[in-house]
Amino acid sequence: MAFKRIDGRKNSDLRPITAKIGVIPNADGSALFAFGNTIAIAAVYGPRLLHPQHMQDPETGILRVNYDLLSFSVNDRKKPGPSRRSQEISKVTEWALSPVLDLKEFPNTVIDVQIYIIQADAGTRTAGINAASMALAHAGIPMRNLVCSVAVGKQDKEIVVDLTKAEEDFDGGEGPTDFPLAKIANTDQYTLLQLDGKIPAERVSEVLTIADQAFANIYEAQKKALKEEFS
Length: 231
Ligand code: CDP
Known about the structure:
Layout: E1 17-21, E2 29-35, E3 38-49, E4 62-69, H1 84-97, E5 109-119, H2 124-138, E6 147-155, E7 158-161, H3 165-169, E8 178-184, E9 190-193, H4 204-230
Parallel strand pairs: 4-5
Antiparallel strand pairs: 1-2, 2-3, 3-5, 6-7, 6-8, 8-9
Helix pairs in contact: 1-2, 2-4
The structure holds cytidine-5'-diphosphate (CDP).
Cytidine-5'-diphosphate is lined by residues 69, 74-76, 78, 85, 120-125, 151, 165, 168, 178, 180.
């Protein structure tokens, strides 16, 4: 029988994207980005002087990301507060976004990015990176380009994009595979490559090809939301 995804999507189909700018009025920049039922909001504050003062760097500003899942964003209530997982995701999100920012323009300062996942159905770090990238642009932080992010995985030996939690949990015999990526739009520069599970080396180009199609759609949605805001 031909392979079919749980929700009937083609291997290269993203879930419906929602992209909105300006969802948090008090922030310097904010955005919402959703892949289907995975909804991330991001708020940017700064650049502002970093405290305590001894942490200031006269050579550069710093980007400080805080990612969190709201307690009832997942089926099992998530205990409030930081965890190893949220610390890891905050750190990889900083690394994914920093290459597009020239932080040397803002010595002694911090740019705070708060990412909240208000509903989770897999792919939250990638939705968070997309939202944060838009929120940084909305805050007027000079950027080389937007960063686009998506997760690729395997289902029944097929390479598929933007997996739901049900898909992520499905074990097609080779174990679940989650391969989140981020790329600077219109470049060949990846800023996030993480692999949980197994993808044979000879299939990595298939992963990059399917991710590239997704990046193009994500970039269009991000740009459209920003254009609507600024027009
Ligand atoms: O969300 P992402 O795929 O970037 O990271 P993950 O750590 O691989 O988590 C996969 C999914 O597991 C999340 O998107 C949530 O849907 C779910 N999850 C959960 O149900 N409870 C948690 N405490 C953490 C994650």
